[in-house]
Structures are given as C-alpha cells and as structure tokens.
Amino acid sequence: MQGYWTYEYCHLSHVRQFHTPAPNESPSSPALSFYLGRYPENTLSMTHLVEADADGKSYLKEIWGDGTECDLTRGPRITEIQVSPLQISSLSLSLVFS
C-alpha cells in the first residue's frame, strides 16, 4: 500500500501535500490538498547557507511560509526547504515538517 499523502515540490512556486481518492474510494470524495509553503518574494533574506549539520554536510536552507491555515495552530503552514549541492541535479522530497 502506498502512503496516504503525495507531496508536490514546484520549483520557485510551492510545496503541496495532497490525497486523491483511490479507485476503491467514492469518486465523490473531495481531494484533500494543503499548501505547506509558497516561494517567498524576497528570497535573499530567506536563504541561508548551513556550513555543516550534525553529519558534517553543508546545504542551502530556505523558509517558505504563507501555506494553508493549520487546523491546530490556526496560523499559516511553514516549510523548510533544504538543498545540498549533490541534490541539485536530481531533487527529491525526502522529509516534510510543517
């Protein structure tokens, strides 16, 4: 069985979490969709180089906000985007915290 959620990373646009009904679910079930963050207009103030994490690896970090309202906090969802130099040619979404 696949995971319930699918994640979409759209470069310079947004990160979205969504679920579409499976073939055995009612076709009238609405698709669930949440924006976990949107690309900020002023990225220079939001982009940081992390020199070394706990594993000694460097990466770029951006905070994308203005996501869909969170049910628990009632605030907009926020996502941290991390890109390491080795991932630039083949990006993959490995872990999502919102």
Tell me what you see in this structure.
This protein is mostly beta strands and 98 residues long. It has a single domain, classed as Cation-dependent Mannose-6-phosphate Receptor, Chain A (Distorted Sandwich). 0% of the residues lie in helices and 34% in strands. The chain contains no helices and 6 strands. The strands form 2 sheets. A 3-stranded antiparallel sheet has the order 1-2-3, with no helix packed on it. Strand 4 and strand 5 form a beta hairpin.
What distance separates the N and C termini? 24 Å
List the uncertain runs.
Answer: none
Q: What does the radius of gyration come to?
A: 16 Å
CATH top-level class: Mainly Beta
Please tally the helical runs, counting DSSP H or I stretches of 4 or more residues.
0
CATH architecture: Distorted Sandwich
SSE class: mainly beta
Number of domains: 1
- Shape call: elongated
Q: Level of helix content?
A: under 10%
**Mean of the pLDDT scores?**
77
Strand tally is: 6
CATH fold name: Cation-dependent Mannose-6-phosphate Receptor, Chain A
**Quick one: CATH superfamily?**
Mannose-6-phosphate receptor binding domain
The helix/strand order is EEEEEE
The main sheet comes to: 3 strands, antiparallel
- Spatially, the strands of the biggest sheet line up as 1-2-3
Percent range for β-strand residues = 25-35%
Please name the defining characteristics of this protein.
elongated, Cation-dependent Mannose-6-phosphate Receptor, Chain A, mainly beta, single chain, three-stranded antiparallel β-sheet
